[in-house]
Amino acid sequence: MKLRVGVLQLDIALGDEKKNRENIERWMSQTYVPSDVPTAIVVPELWNTGYALERATELADTEGKRTAAFLGNLAKKYGVWFVGGSVLVSTEEGHTNRAQAINPQGELVAWYDKVHLFRLMDEDKYLLSGKKDCLFDLEGIKAGCVICYDIRFCEWLRTYALRGTEVLFVSAEWPSSRVDHWKTLLRARAIENQMYVVACNRCGTTGNTHFAGGSMVIGPKGEILFEGSEGEEAGFVTLNLKAVSEIRKFITVFNDRVPEIYDTQTK
Ligand SMILES: O=C(O)CCC(=O)C(=O)O
Protein backbone atom coordinates (compact mmCIF):
# COMPACT_ATOMS: atom_id res chain seq x y z
CA MET A 1 0.00 0.00 0.00
CA LYS A 2 1.33 3.42 -0.94
CA LEU A 3 0.34 6.91 0.14
CA ARG A 4 1.59 10.19 -1.26
CA VAL A 5 1.78 12.88 1.42
CA GLY A 6 2.14 16.60 0.87
CA VAL A 7 3.03 19.18 3.47
CA LEU A 8 1.98 22.75 2.66
CA GLN A 9 4.40 24.76 4.77
CA LEU A 10 2.74 28.17 4.77
CA ASP A 11 2.95 31.56 6.45
CA ILE A 12 -0.20 32.63 8.32
CA ALA A 13 -1.76 36.10 8.33
CA LEU A 14 -2.95 36.82 11.89
CA GLY A 15 -6.75 36.96 12.10
CA ASP A 16 -7.19 37.09 8.31
CA GLU A 17 -9.03 33.92 7.29
CA LYS A 18 -9.72 35.17 3.75
CA LYS A 19 -6.06 35.73 3.01
CA ASN A 20 -5.08 32.39 4.56
CA ARG A 21 -7.71 30.56 2.48
CA GLU A 22 -6.50 32.23 -0.70
CA ASN A 23 -2.98 31.09 0.09
CA ILE A 24 -4.05 27.45 0.42
CA GLU A 25 -6.05 27.73 -2.81
CA ARG A 26 -3.04 29.17 -4.61
CA TRP A 27 -0.74 26.38 -3.41
CA MET A 28 -3.29 23.70 -4.29
CA SER A 29 -3.63 25.10 -7.82
CA GLN A 30 0.07 24.26 -8.32
CA THR A 31 -0.20 20.77 -6.84
CA TYR A 32 0.18 17.69 -8.98
CA VAL A 33 -2.08 14.82 -7.89
CA PRO A 34 -1.24 11.37 -9.31
CA SER A 35 -4.15 9.10 -10.18
CA ASP A 36 -2.58 5.79 -9.08
CA VAL A 37 -1.68 6.64 -5.43
CA PRO A 38 -3.93 8.36 -2.86
CA THR A 39 -2.68 11.76 -1.74
CA ALA A 40 -3.03 13.35 1.70
CA ILE A 41 -2.25 17.04 2.25
CA VAL A 42 -1.32 18.53 5.64
CA VAL A 43 -1.49 22.25 6.50
CA PRO A 44 -0.25 24.08 9.63
CA GLU A 45 -1.85 24.50 13.04
CA LEU A 46 -4.43 27.33 13.31
CA TRP A 47 -3.98 28.07 9.61
CA ASN A 48 -7.15 30.17 9.43
CA THR A 49 -6.38 32.76 12.12
CA GLY A 50 -3.00 32.07 13.70
CA TYR A 51 -2.79 32.68 17.45
CA ALA A 52 -5.45 35.44 17.57
CA LEU A 53 -6.90 33.68 20.60
CA GLU A 54 -8.09 36.86 22.33
CA ARG A 55 -10.40 37.38 19.32
CA ALA A 56 -11.73 33.81 19.49
CA THR A 57 -15.38 34.83 19.95
CA GLU A 58 -15.26 36.91 16.77
CA LEU A 59 -13.08 34.61 14.65
CA ALA A 60 -13.83 31.01 15.65
CA ASP A 61 -15.55 28.69 13.23
CA THR A 62 -18.77 27.23 14.70
CA GLU A 63 -18.15 23.48 15.15
CA GLY A 64 -15.57 23.75 12.34
CA LYS A 65 -18.35 23.73 9.72
CA ARG A 66 -16.96 26.60 7.62
CA THR A 67 -13.57 24.91 7.47
CA ALA A 68 -14.96 21.46 6.68
CA ALA A 69 -16.91 22.99 3.77
CA PHE A 70 -13.87 24.92 2.48
CA LEU A 71 -11.43 21.99 2.71
CA GLY A 72 -14.16 19.61 1.53
CA ASN A 73 -14.56 21.58 -1.71
CA LEU A 74 -10.81 21.61 -2.28
CA ALA A 75 -10.59 17.89 -1.46
CA LYS A 76 -13.23 17.13 -4.09
CA LYS A 77 -11.73 19.49 -6.65
CA TYR A 78 -8.25 17.95 -6.43
CA GLY A 79 -9.17 14.40 -5.35
CA VAL A 80 -7.07 14.52 -2.18
CA TRP A 81 -7.39 14.01 1.56
CA PHE A 82 -6.81 16.93 3.93
CA VAL A 83 -5.52 15.82 7.32
CA GLY A 84 -4.79 17.99 10.31
CA GLY A 85 -4.32 21.64 9.70
CA SER A 86 -6.14 22.85 12.76
CA VAL A 87 -8.44 25.85 13.11
CA LEU A 88 -9.97 27.82 15.96
CA VAL A 89 -13.42 26.33 16.58
CA SER A 90 -16.34 27.29 18.82
CA THR A 91 -18.37 24.53 20.44
CA GLU A 92 -21.23 24.66 22.96
CA GLU A 93 -18.69 24.18 25.77
CA GLY A 94 -16.09 26.69 24.55
CA HIS A 95 -13.30 27.18 22.03
CA THR A 96 -10.93 24.46 20.85
CA ASN A 97 -7.93 24.05 18.56
CA ARG A 98 -9.34 21.47 16.11
CA ALA A 99 -7.81 19.41 13.30
CA GLN A 100 -10.00 17.71 10.72
CA ALA A 101 -9.56 14.75 8.37
CA ILE A 102 -11.50 15.15 5.12
CA ASN A 103 -11.68 12.57 2.36
CA PRO A 104 -11.61 13.16 -1.43
CA GLN A 105 -15.43 13.01 -1.48
CA GLY A 106 -15.33 16.13 0.68
CA GLU A 107 -16.65 14.35 3.80
CA LEU A 108 -15.45 15.04 7.33
CA VAL A 109 -14.16 11.64 8.50
CA ALA A 110 -12.62 12.50 11.88
CA TRP A 111 -11.60 15.46 14.04
CA TYR A 112 -9.25 16.11 16.93
CA ASP A 113 -9.20 18.81 19.61
CA LYS A 114 -5.65 19.51 20.83
CA VAL A 115 -5.27 17.66 24.12
CA HIS A 116 -2.14 19.30 25.57
CA LEU A 117 -2.67 23.06 25.71
CA PHE A 118 0.44 25.20 25.38
CA ARG A 119 0.65 27.67 28.27
CA LEU A 120 3.43 29.76 26.69
CA MET A 121 0.87 30.78 24.03
CA ASP A 122 -1.97 31.21 26.60
CA GLU A 123 -3.94 28.32 25.13
CA ASP A 124 -5.02 27.28 28.63
CA LYS A 125 -6.66 30.73 29.13
CA TYR A 126 -8.74 30.66 25.95
CA LEU A 127 -9.25 27.04 24.93
CA LEU A 128 -10.70 23.79 26.20
CA SER A 129 -8.51 20.74 25.81
CA GLY A 130 -9.65 17.74 23.81
CA LYS A 131 -10.56 14.53 25.57
CA LYS A 132 -10.01 11.91 22.87
CA ASP A 133 -7.54 10.74 20.27
CA CYS A 134 -8.05 10.88 16.52
CA LEU A 135 -7.55 7.61 14.65
CA PHE A 136 -9.13 6.95 11.28
CA ASP A 137 -8.95 4.74 8.21
CA LEU A 138 -7.24 6.49 5.30
CA GLU A 139 -7.74 4.27 2.23
CA GLY A 140 -6.96 1.16 4.32
CA ILE A 141 -4.08 2.81 6.22
CA LYS A 142 -4.30 3.33 9.97
CA ALA A 143 -3.83 7.07 10.37
CA GLY A 144 -3.88 9.44 13.31
CA CYS A 145 -3.38 13.12 13.99
CA VAL A 146 -2.18 15.35 16.80
CA ILE A 147 -1.26 19.02 17.12
CA CYS A 148 2.08 20.70 17.89
CA TYR A 149 2.83 20.60 21.66
CA ASP A 150 1.21 17.11 21.78
CA ILE A 151 4.45 15.66 20.33
CA ARG A 152 6.24 16.34 23.63
CA PHE A 153 4.04 13.69 25.30
CA CYS A 154 5.50 10.34 24.31
CA GLU A 155 2.92 8.54 26.44
CA TRP A 156 0.09 10.11 24.43
CA LEU A 157 1.55 9.16 21.07
CA ARG A 158 2.32 5.68 22.38
CA THR A 159 -1.42 5.14 22.79
CA TYR A 160 -1.79 5.88 19.06
CA ALA A 161 0.88 3.33 18.20
CA LEU A 162 -0.61 0.71 20.52
CA ARG A 163 -3.85 1.09 18.62
CA GLY A 164 -2.06 0.40 15.35
CA THR A 165 -1.34 3.84 13.88
CA GLU A 166 0.96 3.56 10.85
CA VAL A 167 1.02 7.20 9.74
CA LEU A 168 0.83 10.07 12.23
CA PHE A 169 0.00 13.56 10.94
CA VAL A 170 1.14 16.58 12.93
CA SER A 171 0.18 20.22 12.37
CA ALA A 172 2.15 22.89 14.16
CA GLU A 173 3.10 26.51 14.80
CA TRP A 174 6.50 25.71 16.29
CA PRO A 175 8.85 28.66 16.89
CA SER A 176 12.39 28.84 15.46
CA SER A 177 13.83 29.24 18.95
CA ARG A 178 13.11 25.54 19.67
CA VAL A 179 13.40 24.07 16.20
CA ASP A 180 15.97 21.53 17.42
CA HIS A 181 13.33 20.17 19.85
CA TRP A 182 10.82 19.96 16.98
CA LYS A 183 13.10 17.90 14.78
CA THR A 184 14.41 15.67 17.57
CA LEU A 185 10.98 14.95 19.06
CA LEU A 186 9.42 14.12 15.70
CA ARG A 187 12.24 11.74 14.89
CA ALA A 188 12.07 10.12 18.32
CA ARG A 189 8.29 9.62 18.03
CA ALA A 190 8.78 7.97 14.62
CA ILE A 191 11.56 5.65 15.83
CA GLU A 192 10.02 4.60 19.15
CA ASN A 193 6.59 3.99 17.62
CA GLN A 194 7.90 2.59 14.32
CA MET A 195 5.53 4.72 12.28
CA TYR A 196 5.65 7.38 9.59
CA VAL A 197 5.42 10.93 10.94
CA VAL A 198 4.20 13.62 8.54
CA ALA A 199 4.60 17.00 10.19
CA CYS A 200 3.70 20.42 8.80
CA ASN A 201 4.91 23.56 10.54
CA ARG A 202 4.10 27.16 9.63
CA CYS A 203 6.78 29.62 8.62
CA GLY A 204 6.97 33.43 8.79
CA THR A 205 6.79 35.88 11.68
CA THR A 206 3.93 37.08 13.88
CA GLY A 207 4.75 39.82 16.41
CA ASN A 208 8.08 38.87 17.97
CA THR A 209 7.83 35.18 17.15
CA HIS A 210 9.54 33.67 14.16
CA PHE A 211 8.31 30.27 13.04
CA ALA A 212 10.77 27.72 11.88
CA GLY A 213 9.23 25.96 8.92
CA GLY A 214 11.34 22.79 8.87
CA SER A 215 8.35 20.54 8.15
CA MET A 216 9.36 16.89 8.21
CA VAL A 217 8.38 13.56 6.75
CA ILE A 218 10.10 10.77 8.71
CA GLY A 219 10.08 7.04 8.07
CA PRO A 220 9.44 4.32 10.68
CA LYS A 221 13.18 3.74 11.16
CA GLY A 222 13.78 7.44 11.73
CA GLU A 223 14.92 8.19 8.19
CA ILE A 224 14.34 11.79 7.09
CA LEU A 225 12.40 11.67 3.82
CA PHE A 226 11.65 15.39 3.56
CA GLU A 227 12.84 18.42 5.50
CA GLY A 228 11.41 21.84 4.73
CA SER A 229 13.41 25.04 4.50
CA GLU A 230 12.47 28.23 6.42
CA GLY A 231 10.08 29.69 3.84
CA GLU A 232 6.80 28.74 2.17
CA GLU A 233 7.00 25.50 0.22
CA ALA A 234 5.18 22.28 -0.62
CA GLY A 235 6.97 18.97 -0.06
CA PHE A 236 5.75 15.63 -1.41
CA VAL A 237 6.85 12.11 -0.52
CA THR A 238 5.41 8.70 -1.43
CA LEU A 239 5.27 6.39 1.59
CA ASN A 240 5.39 2.62 1.30
CA LEU A 241 3.41 1.18 4.19
CA LYS A 242 5.29 -2.13 3.99
CA ALA A 243 8.16 -0.38 5.78
CA VAL A 244 6.04 -0.14 8.95
CA SER A 245 5.19 -3.84 9.18
CA GLU A 246 8.77 -4.78 8.28
CA ILE A 247 10.42 -2.78 11.07
CA ARG A 248 7.74 -3.86 13.57
CA LYS A 249 8.55 -7.49 12.72
CA PHE A 250 12.34 -6.94 12.83
CA ILE A 251 12.60 -5.02 16.14
CA THR A 252 9.62 -6.28 18.12
CA VAL A 253 9.18 -3.41 20.58
CA PHE A 254 5.43 -3.83 20.85
CA ASN A 255 5.79 -7.48 21.92
CA ASP A 256 8.70 -6.69 24.22
CA ARG A 257 7.06 -4.02 26.35
CA VAL A 258 6.50 -4.87 30.05
CA PRO A 259 3.66 -2.52 31.02
CA GLU A 260 2.86 -4.32 34.27
CA ILE A 261 6.29 -3.23 35.58
CA TYR A 262 5.94 0.36 34.33
CA ASP A 263 2.73 0.74 36.32
CA THR A 264 4.30 -0.40 39.60
CA GLN A 265 7.15 2.15 39.28
CA THR A 266 4.81 5.18 39.27
CA LYS A 267 2.84 4.20 42.41
O1 LIG B 1 6.42 22.78 22.63
C1 LIG B 1 6.88 23.76 22.04
O2 LIG B 1 8.03 24.16 22.22
C2 LIG B 1 6.05 24.51 21.04
C3 LIG B 1 4.60 24.18 21.14
C4 LIG B 1 3.74 25.14 20.44
O3 LIG B 1 4.20 26.13 19.91
C5 LIG B 1 2.29 24.90 20.33
O4 LIG B 1 1.80 23.88 20.81
O5 LIG B 1 1.62 25.73 19.71
TrEMBL record:
<keyword id="KW-0449">Lipoprotein</keyword>
<dbReference type="GO" id="GO:0016746">
    <property type="term" value="F:acyltransferase activity"/>
</dbReference>
<dbReference type="Pfam" id="PF00795">
    <property type="entry name" value="CN_hydrolase"/>
</dbReference>
<feature type="domain" description="CN hydrolase">
    <location>
        <begin position="3"/>
        <end position="241"/>
    </location>
</feature>
<dbReference type="InterPro" id="IPR003010">
    <property type="entry name" value="C-N_Hydrolase"/>
</dbReference>
<keyword id="KW-0808">Transferase</keyword>
<dbReference type="GO" id="GO:0106008">
    <property type="term" value="F:2-oxoglutaramate amidase activity"/>
</dbReference>
<keyword id="KW-0012">Acyltransferase</keyword>
<dbReference type="InterPro" id="IPR052737">
    <property type="entry name" value="Omega-amidase_YafV"/>
</dbReference>
<dbReference type="InterPro" id="IPR036526">
    <property type="entry name" value="C-N_Hydrolase_sf"/>
</dbReference>
<protein>
    <submittedName>
        <fullName>Nitrilase/cyanide hydratase and apolipoprotein N-acyltransferase</fullName>
    </submittedName>
</protein>
<dbReference type="GO" id="GO:0050152">
    <property type="term" value="F:omega-amidase activity"/>
</dbReference>
